[in-house]
User: Fold these one by one.
Assistant:
Number 1:
Amino acid sequence: MNRIVFKLIVALAIILSFFEIAAANPPKPPPVGDIAGYVTGLDGETPIQGVAVRAIDPYGFTYYDTTNSDGYYFLYALQLGLYDVETSKAGYITQIQENIEVIMDQVTIVNFQLGFACDYVVGDVNNSGMLNGLDIVYAVNYFKGFSPPPYSCFCDGHIWYVSGDVNGDCLFNGLDVVYIIVFLKGGAPPIPCPACPPGGR
């Protein structure tokens, strides 16, 4: 056997032994954990299907799932660390829970209760797209028995004229008319119902 052939055999043996060692000691996958939970209505019971749920890490990498008919979602095999978990669905208020920790080999439960989103301008009783003196006239006429405000929204457990609430008490009544008058004279700005923010945010 000449030297060249001998060297080739030795080199081949080394290469084969390397692959055998690598096969016997495969690299360990990085530790991971999961995030899961339910998305329901404000009653905490009614499931909401089709909600997009995202978990975003500090570097902007996103894990994504959509709730099923039970309102359940499951984000699996997330790298360990802190995440912001966000829900979104047309017609509902977007919610974010921040700094949710993913722990190795554990499922972190993150549940959401979503309210309906209302698209309006605070104080815009006549639904013209802005708040001005005409809204005072419209509100006064409504309370005298004339036409109701053209915009209503299901929020805070019932359908009501949410744009008329300008003092933040989640009601539409004569106190809101007074508040608008004071505002237009330089007073404090309108305050929406906390449970029904305009635009759902």
Number 2:
Amino acid sequence: MLKPTREILTASLTYVGRAEMTVAGTRYLVARSRRRLRPDFAMSGGSFDDDAVVGVLRERLATGELPLIASGECWAGPAAGGHSCVVCGVAIGQGAAEYEVPHDGARPLHAHAACFFTWRLEAQRLRGSRKQAS
């Protein structure tokens, strides 16, 4: 009876991982749609060319320049100002939604909400592709 339990647990963990990726992707799509449908809704400095940013982001994740973040590894709130987004390089305006990601005991990394969701989604995809390759 132990073997089927282990198989069920393994399958459940796989489904949870897929669900987390789906949720992250959905959040990203909602944020992107809001920016496109209502430009006044966009966060200060949060607009970017999706394809160009995603291409650079994937390269930076693959080389290790940016960490492979997982869900739950951040804090979010209104920006105090003075930080640039590590994903797109644009300054995060005061009061805009800002995500702060801890990084190797050093100073935290800061990102716009849309950039953060894209970063997390691409990190999950890269992590998933590495698991499949091994």
Number 3:
Amino acid sequence: MSEYQYYEFRAVDRPLGKAELKRLRDLSTRAAISPTSFVNTYQWGELRAAASARAENREREIREKKEAERRRQEAAQAAARAAYLDRLAGREDDTWDKIGEFIATKRPNDYDRAIQLLIDLRDLANRDKREADFRFGLRTVREEHASKPSLQRRLNEAGLPDERALSLPLLDD
């Protein structure tokens, strides 16, 4: 058994404007649309296909909106990070001192704060092409606090490796 549907609308008080015609065309690509009428017919199979196509379009639009929002948030985060690094530039010496103060407390939360500041200084050094200065400062921190395994572990986990260990020659078995 097949279903057949016929829709017809007539504009009786005034012709439709361009914006209204566009909205109707967005609703149906197969209808006969004019400023004074809208005529559309469907067979059952076409109804299912049209519903499926609308659902796919909605899902695609939702994915595109989510992707656009994700890109917007990433751009906002990158801009905020760049602004933060701009504010940090020129205050590196004070930041190194603050790192030393945090580590001296021997409290895990303060270690985490010191690690975050080290990451910030690393990112700033990378941005400003002064990686050697950062590596020297990190080496100094590691040497001064070599007896603190918790700090050393946190430095490694944060991607701030001990360059002395990286530069050791490999031993043969």
Number 4:
Amino acid sequence: MYRTSIQLIGRAVAACAVASMALGGVVRAEAQTELINPLPIQRSMSVSDAPAVVEPLAGGTATANFVIHLNGTPLRGNETVRFSFKTEDVSASAGVDYTAGSGALQFVAGGPTALAVGIPVLHDGAADSQLTEKFNLRIGHVIGAVLVDGVGVGSIKDRDAGDPGPPPPPPPPPCPLDFQIGDDGQPVAQAKCPDTPVAQ
């Protein structure tokens, strides 16, 4: 009976020793992992609204400029953050009020943390029911960062309804008067204007 009790106690001590070694191994492994990755990599992306743009005159140009920002842990080595962008109608129409655009861009280590996307604005030649028309620039397919704000708004102010354009040039100043004495001895006023070229 005593021998059996001693054997059971010995097995329990051995089991505790094995468990203690296993537990110690896990603790050491976790400590080693924390030393390898001391800080988690955290990056976020967002796109800002474009400043409002007045519709250009016929034959003129205007651009709605959106800016995409990368924040957080700086990129290192060969790390990149890639994303795509595309425009989408809201109250403005692609091909009439602005030129549709899409593409892909990336942030690279050592490069800028803000990238600009310019969307051409068009002259539609008609008065619209809304003084300001809108369209979106949507960000998608982000790899390497968390997308916080993926939609930027572009605003186009209608020139025909809300902005008459530049004022007309002022009229030329009146011609100075030149007083001369007529045949009857009375003063006669004559306009003394510079010669005006005659169109051929």
